[in-house]
Here is the input.
Amino acid sequence: MTPSSQHPIHTTQAAELPGNHRILETTESQFAQLPPEVLLLIIDHLNTAEKFSLLATCQYLRRLSEPLLYHHLDPDGNWKSRRRIQLLNTLGERHDLLPHIRSFRGYLIPTSIRRPSKPNEEVNLWDSTTRALLHDEWFAISAPLFLQAINIRDLDFTGDIDWQEGDRWELFSRAVSNMKLQSLALSSTSKGPLDFTPILRGQPELTRLELTCPPAHFDGLQEADVPKLKVFKGIWGQAAMIVPGRPVGRLDLDCVCRDDCQCIEEGIFQRLLQSSETIRELEVRVDRTTDDITLRRMLQLIVQHLPEIVGFTMIAKGTVRAQDLLDEIPKLSMIRSLRILNAPILFTSPPAWDSSAGSNRLEINTREKLVEKLKEMCPSLSDVGHTQQIRFKY
Here is the structure.
């Protein structure tokens, strides 16, 4: 696959496609004589390069295959900025393609060094004022397109956007209100509150909600709203608001430790217990400033209130004490997968006053022994993963 065929191109300008294969007006191919619904099923299983090759055969197959190139768009960090710009230009010229988009996962605003109003003039991205102007201009071009992309089912806007700026949040709300989403993910740098309640009330089929947006709130959300939600990502306080009464079985939670750590608030755990399904998968991200006492208390509350967890991942960004894992993880009697990521594991002798762990303390001093001991104490545990070097303290 060549780089030029990996993603949607300016098809409006493609009188000739790569390889100089001029598009034919007619064809006598037996393949083209198949019923359109059969052709669409076949074309939909082709990879991107094969679809582009099909565009070059005849106008009839081009009309069938071109919309399929836009079913699933993922202009993420693997796309160069110019290709994201090219995609936005194509969609801006070809509004007929917008209803064909089924999923969009990537950047709404290109990370560009040029403003759309001055394409030949480079922008100094280190200048915050100039960068803000660039974002404003690209947002004004890209966001309104989604008002016509009414068939999107999976929407994920990557990148940090201040959704409170100007009329951005109103525009986003209007666009989403036209969609029937199954998955919604949003990042935001906004400082003030963002009210998701009106948006979620219109999404009865939503099963996944992922927010990197601490100010988001759901005040006034009724239990009848988003009744099919199964996966939630956000902060602990948001989970306490949206989980009760819904079949949430997987949580991905951030703990932003400042004055109070939500990850050790028992009231939040009691709210999580009100999920209409048993929570089986839990991933937590802990701020690097979290101390050992807080981390241990969080593990104790997880064990106490969510004992039927099957998969547990902790991204700690700081030291995790091996003894805390030995003391608490075996109490999760159904656990099969344990992952400790971005965290050195600290092996240390117990304080003289602490005799709660008994014989497990001094004999465990390597990662291999820790994993062996955990599996011995947890018969159901089969998968243990860890990243980051181990630190020893004597």
In short: The longest strand covers residues 250-255.
